Amino acid sequence: MDTSDRALPVESVNFHVWQPCNMRCRFCFARFKDVRRQVLPAGHLPAADALRVVELLAEAGFRKVNFAGGEPFLCPWLPELLTSARRHGMVTSVVTNGSLVTADGLTALADALDWLVLSVDSLSPAVLAGLGRVTAGRALTEEEYLDLCRRTWAAGISLKINTVVTRLNLHEDLGPFLLTTAPRRWKVLQMLPVTGQNSRDCGPLAVTGEEFGRFVLRHRWVSQHGVEVVPEDNDAMTGSYAMLDPAGRFFDNMRGSYSYSRSVLECGVRTALEQVTVDRAKFLARGGRYHWERPRDEAKPVPGPAGTRPLSGG
Predict the structure, then answer these.
(1) Looking at residue 123, what DSSP letter applies?
(2) What does the pLDDT read at residue 304?
(3) What gap in Å lies between CA 241 and CA 232, rounded to an integer?
(4) Domain span holding position 210
(5) Can you give the C-alpha Rg of the chain in angstroms?
(6) What is the C-alpha separation between 220 and 217, in angstroms, rounded?
(7) What domain count does the chain have?
(8) What average pLDDT does the chain have?
(9) Residue 299 binned pLDDT confidence (cut-offs 50, 70, 90)
(10) Which residues contact 295 (CB under 8 A, 6 or more apart)?
C-alpha cells in the first residue's frame, strides 16, 4: 500500500484501460499502438491486474477515475472496475464513442457510474465518416445520440459531452443539440497532434488557436442555459492530466510524443508519478477540479425531440 503523505499533484486520473477500439478516428491521440507493439500485445491488462491498478490509485488518494480507451465498453470487466472504484470511494466516469452503450447496460451500471462522457464531434454522418468516427462503416445519427443522452439521464447518471474541434466540424453549430441534451459539462478540445499516435493522419484536420477560439465563442451562449463550457486548447491539454496507459504506466505529452513511467504495479503510484510531468496549476486553470459529486435523487433533465428544451425528469 502506498502510504506516503505527499499530496498528489491532481485529484483525478484517466486510466486508458482498453487499447482496442471499434472506430478509427483520424485525430485520436490514444491509439497506443506503441504500447501494444512494445509492452502489452493484448492491448490491455488482465482483469485482476486492472482491478489492482484501480485499488492502487484509490489508496494513493485519487478521488476520481475516468476510464477511457480505445473504447472502454469493449472491456468485459468494466463493471467490476467501476464497482471497485466506487467501493474505494472514488467518483467514476467513462468516456465512450457511444456505439456499444445500451439501455440495459446503463441501468446495470447506474449504481457504479457517476458520469458518462459521450464523444460527439458532429451530427453529420458525412463529417463523422470523414473523421473516421464510424463502426462497420456507419456513424451514429443525431437521433441515436439524443436517445443515448436521454437514457443516460434516465439511469441517474450525469452526462458530459466531449467535442474535438477539427477542420471538418469547425463551422458546425452544436448549440441546439447541447440545449436539448443538457450535459452538465461540455468539454471542447482543440485537436492535439501527438507524434506516434495520430500525427500521420491528423495534419489536414488541424485548426489554429484563433479558429478554435472562434468556435468556442460562437457556442458560449449555451452556458446561459446551464451547460458548463470547458474549452481546452493544445497548451491547456499539455502536462495538465494524470494519465495511465493500458499497461498501467503514467505518461505525459510534454515533448509532443508520449513519455512513460514504470508500471504502478511494479513501483507504486507515487513513484511512477514522479517519472512524468503533471502540472497542478495547469490542471486547475483548465477547470480540472469541479463539483464531481451530486445527490442521486436530484432532478435530471430528460432530452426531448431535437430542437426542444429539456424536460425535468425523475
Answers:
(1) S
(2) 44
(3) 12
(4) 12-288
(5) 18
(6) 5
(7) 1
(8) 92
(9) very low
(10) none
